[in-house]
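Case study 2.
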Amino acid sequence: MARHTAPLEIGIARARGLWLHAQRLDAPAPFGTGPEATRAAIEHLGYVQIDTIHVIERAHHHVLWSRIPGYRPADLHHAQSGERSVFEYWTHALAYLPTSAYRHFLPAMKAEAGNTDRWFGRISPADVRRVLARIRREGPLSIRDFTDEPLVEKHHPWASRKPAKVAMQYAFFAGDLAISRRDGMLRTYDLTNRHFGWDRRPRPASEAQILDYLLERALRAQGIVSLESICYLDAPRKAAMAELIARRIRQRRLLPVRLAGEAEASHWIAPETAALDLPGAGERVHILSPFDPLTIQRARLNRLFGHDHRFEAYVPAPERRYGYFGLPVLVGDRIAAVLDLKADRAAKRLEIRQWSWIHGPRDGDKAQIEAALAPFEAFQFGT
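Prediction:
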């Protein structure tokens, strides 16, 4: 196999810089500005996770704001409902994805089509047919349009008592419906082909094509990759992905990497990425979402940044280290602090509920973070 390929030795600081560069957190406006930047950012990152918690602006908007100066939630609405360049589906969680990648999710949709006992409740085929027929006849609908629904008992704590909601969720995961717009957490559904203007759906990707897609997505957005980072929460694909990586090494399209302090190679990098002359992050400050692509993989974050982040919204208050909704704060290439923030929407001001330093502050850290809080506060309230 690729045993004869000597691993490239990369220090942690260099690996960290490659990841920051891949995430486009080392430049002031890496995707430009305006609505077009939203499509470009999601294309590059591969996905932007959606989250329901609203103590500050929701995570999907927060991730995009961190990379797009002047970003507004209306830009994401335009990408989803106007130009239809992004769509919602499941990666490791519900996320916005580039429509150009839609075919890679069709096999998952086909698998869901036979799953009639999912977490959101038992599905009645008659309810699904009824909902699809009504949307076909009336146009895009949300659950609020089903006012005459007979209520049923819940089969799951997260389920709904309205059969139409279960039916719409099932049809969404099966690919028959697409989310045509989102207002907060209220989703409006339309027939998939009608939403995208397709006569027929794209041809589903093969498993080999999906593996290629996942590897390329990780290389683009992570710079230096591991089997865990490529197949995050997707353990069944690890064996096949390892084979693809070995083939890429033989083709000299990937280089094995041994990080400083490791006994053997556990990461990989594209040759062109290994040769990059990085611009450096300077002392740029980013107040990151706990669901940001840079922070969501906690073990990777800890390995490269030395910060063991915890999401503590569901942790009992006395056991919290960083607070209910701790946000890692990136200063240059360091996680310098974690801030637990809350948007007071009535007063239109940002509350700092807890400020935790990581490894102690350096000179200037507090002033730089305080300066970054002003635009972050303005983003919360669209001012």
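The first helix runs from residue 12 to 22.
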